[in-house]
Amino acid sequence: xxxxxxxxxxxxxxxxxxxxxxxxxxxxxxxxxxxxxxxxxxxxxxxxxxxxxxxxxxxxxxxxxxxxxxxxxxxxxxxxxxxxxxxxxxxxxxxxxxxxxxxxxxxxxxxxxxxxxxxxxxxxxxxxxxxxxxxxxxxxxxxxxxxxxxxxxxxxxxxxxxxxxxxxxxxxxxxxxxxxxxxxxxxxxxxxxxxxxxxxxxxxxxxxxxxxxxxxxxxxxxxxxxxxxxxxxxxxxxxxxxxxxxxxxxxxxxxxxxxxxxxxxxxxxxxxxxxxxxxxxxxxxxxxxxxxxxxxxxxxxxxxxxxxxxxxxxxxxxxxxxxxxxxxxxxxxxxxxxxxxxxxxxxxxxxxxxxxxxxxxxxxxxxxxxxxxxxxxxxxxxxxxxxxxxxxxxxxxxxxxxxxxxxxxxxxxxxxxxxxxxxxxxxxxxxxxxxxxxxx
Length: 440
Hints:
Layout: E1 4-6, H1 23-39, H2 44-58, E2 63-68, E3 76-82, E4 100-102, H3 104-112, E5 116-120, H4 130-133, E6 138-146, E7 149-158, H5 169-212, E8 224-231, E9 239-245, E10 251-258, H6 262-276, H7 286-300, H8 302-305, E11 309-317, E12 322-328, E13 334-337, E14 342-345, E15 350-351, E16 365-368, E17 374-378, H9 380-383, E18 386-387, E19 390-391, H10 393-401, H11 408-422, E20 432-439
Parallel strand pairs: 12-15
Antiparallel strand pairs: 1-5, 2-3, 2-7, 3-4, 5-6, 6-7, 8-20, 9-10, 10-11, 11-12, 12-16, 13-14, 13-17, 17-20, 18-19
Helix pairs in contact: 1-2, 5-6, 6-7, 10-11
């Protein structure tokens, strides 16, 4: 290989001489049109194609060649674009199909990390890139820098000698690198969007699995009308409610809330579900189930994850209407007594959340319900729904559930409507779970 080459360098603060009066307006109009078109592009492949067409109008050349050394061994490079190709190749999606070359003039150019003009090009037939440069006598090499290194390079050639003016070199290097960064940003945005879609599909799968752990339908409990609502603030969440059919026609009602949000909380919710369903025999008292859950969570899970779980578990006997309950740091359910219209919190058996410390002993509390009573179990996403720092709170909740005339499903909807209005329709910032049980 032999070449008569001239290397040109110039201060980056120097610019070409002013254009002949009258020409700059037309040139500016073309550049503005190009910038407008670029700003509308979201596909990097299409933007490169459009930009190449516009540059050909502004600065006609005979050939355009794009190179990349990204991820390759020393002196290796790929031809990523070539104006002589008949079929368009997307280098970001079809990298393996691109020509991989080693050494020669183009390797010398891209690994030099410098812009260069060759005014009398004479490429030897043995050069690896001979087919791309054959018949060309002028070459302009424009490095595209990434982290200070020319990972890519654009070459333009002409068939005549000395076709490129050295005073144009600073502007061309500047323009090419600005375009290269804009293209790279689109590529990254496209990759980020694809990653988000992948994550969203996974989160949707997690959410589907999580919802499959909830009761598929409400149980038929004698003397009880039920209504439930479950809403996560993200795809998946840490709230959990469940019903357990027990001996002698009794039923267990469990509501729990894992600390945190999203997928980590959903995983811990699934673990809590599994533990609750693996106890050998039935817990005769609610405190036994809470102790069982706490022992397993602290022994295997929460010490590593840092999560904890608040929970309220009650056992209801339809024959006697006796309700026995225990609480592990959970929001006290509300009991509306229809005969007095009074709303009371069930807060007489509260203790530490699950997963904080081993060997905790929870205690039980009992009461007898009356026909017309209403029990409302909920997570803190209900009462802590906020508007400008103000919480929805228990007073607003109590005002809605105190209406004895409403069925539980209507009461539940009234609560959700009130929260929606209170928060001005803002998306939930925390998971929201409601279980309403009316005694009939």
